[in-house]
Specification:
273 residues, mainly beta, Jelly Rolls, 8-stranded mixed beta sheet, 7-stranded antiparallel beta sheet, 19 strands, globular
Length: 273
């Protein structure tokens, strides 16, 4: 996560991407503002097993809690994050909300990404009040969005195929008219509550840019070399055996855990299967 001032709010757990019976603690030193319920020494962690798609720290949300960036300040805002919603109930949870004011009031909402138990819902609050949805898959989901106040456009992608040659998505999942306004703050988590849903929502690899698409992580690139080869299997094996966390993205099949099936997934990629 780059160029982001962050605020921890509520009961958010910042978790290292662990395995087995322990999770490696992350640090809150880079997060500014209130740290309610968070140890002042900056070391937070949990004995829970935490799903991960990269070595970046995950956000494990179980209640009304979120992290906030006040470093946006742009009429064009492009972001990407992975989310693994493991919820029961029929509520709709707002996962990401962008505001035209750092106060983060609902009246200042420019756009948001929500989850209703089946679909991801994208609402850019345009003049006609349009919103669109896309079906979520089990396990990890890749979300990318592009808000452009200058052209009154909101584009979104859900689990779209990323072309590593052209560094772009093969197609836009959806596009519709947005409202106008400068993004001054962004909240990621469950800033408006769980709406009756129970369970855990895990986020990973959130990143935002101002001018270009962020792009997907290369699933199975466990050693973070930019390509898939036998060395990724070595890195995966080390993590499975508890020797060391893979520095890249070891969850090749994106099912929320790192195990022998991910080794098979990488092997199939190497063999072109």
């Amino acid at each position: 996560m780059r160029n982001m001032d962050r605020v921890i709010v509520g009961g958010l757990l910042i978790l290292g991407m662990g395995f087995g019976l322990s999770a490696q603690a992350c640090t809150t030193d880079g997060w500014l503002g209130g740290k309610s319920g968070i140890p002042d020494n900056g070391d937070v962690g949990s004995p829970l097993t935490v799903s991960r798609v990269s070595e970046l720290c995950a956000l494990a949300i179980t209640d009304t809690s979120w992290v906030q960036s006040n470093a946006a300040s742009n009429t064009k805002y492009i972001g990407r994050f992975y989310v693994y919603p493991n919820l029961s109930g029929s509520g709709t949870v707002d996962l990401l909300v962008a505001y035209s004011d750092e106060g983060g009031a609902d009246v200042d909402t420019l756009f948001k990404v929500s989850y209703d138990g089946t679909d991801f819902i994208f609402d850019a609050r345009g003049a006609d009040g349009d919103f669109e949805s896309a079906t979520a898959s089990s396990g990890w989901n890749l979300i990318e969005f592009e808000y452009d106040s200058g052209s009154n456009t909101f584009n979104y992608w859900v689990n779209e195929a990323w072309d590593f040659d052209s560094l772009s998505y093969e197609a836009v999942t959806g596009s519709f008219a947005s409202g106008t306004g400068t993004v001054e703050a962004v909240k990621l988590g469950a800033p408006n509550g769980m709406d009756g849903s129970t369970g855990t929502i895990t986020f990973d690899a959130f990143e935002a840019h101002r001018t270009k698409s962020v792009g997907a992580l290369l699933a199975g690139d466990s050693n973070f070399s930019g390509s898939i080869n036998v060395f990724d299997m070595v890195s995966q094996q080390n993590e499975i055996l508890g020797n060391a966390l893979a520095p890249g993205q070891p969850d090749c099949n994106l099912n929320g855990s790192v195990n022998v099936f991910d080794l098979v997934c990488v092997q199939n990629k190497i063999l072109g299967n």
